UniProtKB/TrEMBL annotation:
The lineage of its organism: Bacteria, Pseudomonadati, Pseudomonadota, Alphaproteobacteria, Rhodobacterales. Coiled coil: none annotated. Keywords: Oxidoreductase. Residues 2-245 form the NmrA-like domain. PANTHER family: NMRA-LIKE DOMAIN-CONTAINING PROTEIN (PTHR47129:SF1), QUINONE OXIDOREDUCTASE 2 (PTHR47129). The keyword Oxidoreductase applies. One of its GO terms (molecular function) is NAD(P)H dehydrogenase (quinone) activity. Pfam families: NmrA. Its EC number is 1.6.5.2. It comes from the Bacteria. This is Quinone oxidoreductase 2.
Length: 281
């Protein structure tokens, strides 16, 4: 049994591989990466796998029994990239794919959703047995900005009082590992989110509690928040996208109360306080 992971040197991919190594022999794991030298520390076989170089895809997928397709990180390029991967998998006869999609993808109002929906449709059309891991928001999407919030004595955003049911990368990785190493997941769609939801005001309160400083949440308009992110050094397009995600969060796009994730991984999802503590450490 050979399990291969795309984007294996990414933030989620690394965690998946480390969790897999605790369950199956390292010889059964393949890291699919653009630059194998960056995967040297993973302790598994690394194969060159570049979405934008289709000639690398089929050889890298040779002999793979299960493929975890972690969605590409380049928004706007993902449909083409994922098409190339799925076509290559079909060509070499990969028998199973698990794909990291987006929570409630077909109804989700985030601008990220259409690329995920298109990929889900490509998987269906391919005829390859598959599982859809519809990941909700990563708690780290918010906690990565906490050092700046502490420095400037304010957490900024545009999510209003929207409730966010996020989970940690460790939790979503555990779901992928459960599906890749378990049975009976073919044809299933899992809507994955954290056990408890919070507002950004509540996140700011947790940061205040852990730092002993008063860190309020300052809600901005979409345009103000995008401008602030640009001023902080983010590329304009990315800043605009992040601001739009927050606005959709204010309308409930990141909320879910299904508890499917904790059921799949057999434990509660990581508490917000733990992810905050890790970000502040």
């Amino acid at each position: 049994m050979t399990i291969a992971i795309t984007g294996a040197t990414g933030q989620l991919g690394r965690i998946v591989i480390n969790q897999l190594k605790a369950k199956i022999p390292a010889e059964q794991i393949v890291a699919l990466v653009r630059s194998p030298e960056k995967a040297a520390d993973l302790g598994v076989e690394a194969r060159v796998f570049d979405y934008d170089k289709p000639e690398t895809l089929e050889p890298a997928l040779s002999g793979v029994d299960k493929l975890l397709l972690i969605s590409g990180s380049e928004i706007g390029k993902r449909i083409g990239q994922h098409t190339a991967v799925i076509n290559a998998a079909k060509a070499v006869g990969v028998p199973y794919i698990a794909y990291t999609s987006l929570l409630n993808a077909t109804e989700n109002t985030l601008s990220l959703a259409p690329e995920h929906v298109a990929t889900e449709e490509l998987l269906t059309e391919s005829g390859i047995p598959h599982t859809l891991l519809r990941n909700g928001w990563y708690t780290e999407n918010y906690t990565m900005s906490l050092p700046a919030a502490v420095e400037h004595n304010a957490l900024i955003g545009a999510a209003g009082d929207g409730r966010i049911s996020s989970a940690s990368r460790v939790d979503y990785a555990a779901a992928a590992v459960a599906v890749l190493t378990g049975e009976g997941h073919e044809g299933k769609t899992y809507e994955l989110s954290g056990d408890s939801a919070y507002t950004l005001t509540e996140l700011a309160a947790e940061v205040s509690k852990q730092t002993g400083k008063d860190i309020p949440y300052v809600n901005m308009s979409e345009a103000e928040y995008a401008a602030a992110l640009t001023q902080a050094g983010l590329p304009e397009g990315f800043a605009a996208a992040l601001a739009s995600f927050d606005v959709e969060a204010s309308k409930g796009a990141l909320y879910d109360d299904g508890n499917t994730l904790s059921g799949l991984i057999g434990r509660p999802t990581t508490p917000l306080s733990d992810v905050v503590a890790a970000a502040l450490a």
